């Protein structure tokens, strides 16, 4: 073996003291090769000086984030903020919850929430003010529809109320008359009620709006402004007896009218069944066409 070969075999294969800090570009570094670190592995803690205090970390709650986000939108997104305001005023879905059925005007009477979300309710005080003419600047005429049974109506009703105890006949009569205001700047409004305004009046109101929609090209309506008297005749009688004639109140379940109540309910169910049958036939005819 030659001397040069023996020296080569006795020398280490890699110089552990190689300078890795040179600016030359390295194509490959072995993972096992140690590397000199230019910075310590552990970060040294420096105490804040009085002139440059360390800022304290603040825990951001959800409300704080929301407030900051709203503030940022107010500062930088005036258009977005305005559109959001408009959308809130329009009920969130782009349709104004305060517009009447044909979307042409806002409601003439102040409304309140009630049992049925899709209907507009007025209070007994608003009903009293309507009877006293306090809305005459907007309302030319109004019709109070009493949806109670005849013996209830005869036992006491709102002055001038129209007795229409049957849902189907009430809808047919109202749509056949097609009442309307003579002045284009004023309204004709309908106010429906029963004893509590929980079932009969809302049912008549829903059917009237549904049939009215089917008779007209959307969104036109014969009666675009419908209201339900919240609390019904019972609450109105206890608050404003002066607007009732006679000034009395006959409940639906009065013990003297049990037989009449049974007859009225049987008749109403028969008419409701007939209405469903006609609707089913009309649906089948449309499907065949």
TrEMBL record:
GO terms for biological process: cell division; G2/M transition of mitotic cell cycle; positive regulation of G2/M transition of mitotic cell cycle; positive regulation of G2/MI transition of meiotic cell cycle. Pfam families: M-inducer_phosp, Rhodanese. Its EC number is 3.1.3.48. Residues 21-57 are annotated as: Disordered. Residues 138-245 form the Rhodanese domain. One of its GO terms (cellular component) is nucleus. SUPFAM superfamilies: Rhodanese/Cell cycle control phosphatase. This is M-phase inducer phosphatase. It catalyses: O-phospho-L-tyrosyl-[protein] + H2O = L-tyrosyl-[protein] + phosphate. The keyword Ribosomal protein does not apply. It comes from Salmo trutta. Belongs to the MPI phosphatase family. GO terms for molecular function: protein tyrosine phosphatase activity. Keywords: Cell cycle, Cell division, Hydrolase, Mitosis, Protein phosphatase. Tyrosine protein phosphatase which functions as a dosage-dependent inducer of mitotic progression.
């Amino acid at each position: 073996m030659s001397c040069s070969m023996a020296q080569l075999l006795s020398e280490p294969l890699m110089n552990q003291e190689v300078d890795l800090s040179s600016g030359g570009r390295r194509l490959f570094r072995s993972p096992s090769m140690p590397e000199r670190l230019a910075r310590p592995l552990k970060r040294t803690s420096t105490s804040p000086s009085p002139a440059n205090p360390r800022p304290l970390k603040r825990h951001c709650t959800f409300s704080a984030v929301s407030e900051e986000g709203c503030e940022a939108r107010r500062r930088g997104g005036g258009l977005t903020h305005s559109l959001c305001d408009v959308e809130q005023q329009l009920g969130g879905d782009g349709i104004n919850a305060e517009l009447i059925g044909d979307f042409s005007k806002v409601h003439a009477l102040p409304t309140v929430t009630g049992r049925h979300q899709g209907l507009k309710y007025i209070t007994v005080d608003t009903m009293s003010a309507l009877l006293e003419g306090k809305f005459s600047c907007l309302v030319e005429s109004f019709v109070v529809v009493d949806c109670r049974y005849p013996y209830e109506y005869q036992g006491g009703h709102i002055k001038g109320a129209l007795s229409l105890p049957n849902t189907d006949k009430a809808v047919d009569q109202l749509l056949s008359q097609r009442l309307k205001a003579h002045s284009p700047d004023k309204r004709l409004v309908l106010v429906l009620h029963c004893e509590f305004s929980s079932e009969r009046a809302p049912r008549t109101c829903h059917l009237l709006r549904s049939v009215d929609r089917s008779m007209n090209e959307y969104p036109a309506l014969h009666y675009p402004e419908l209201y339900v008297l919240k609390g019904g005749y019972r609450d109105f009688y206890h608050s404003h007896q002066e607007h009732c004639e006679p000034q009395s109140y006959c409940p639906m379940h009065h013990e003297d009218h049990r037989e009449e109540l049974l007859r009225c309910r049987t008749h109403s169910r028969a008419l409701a069944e007939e209405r469903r049958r006609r609707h089913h036939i009309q649906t089948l005819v449309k499907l065949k066409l």
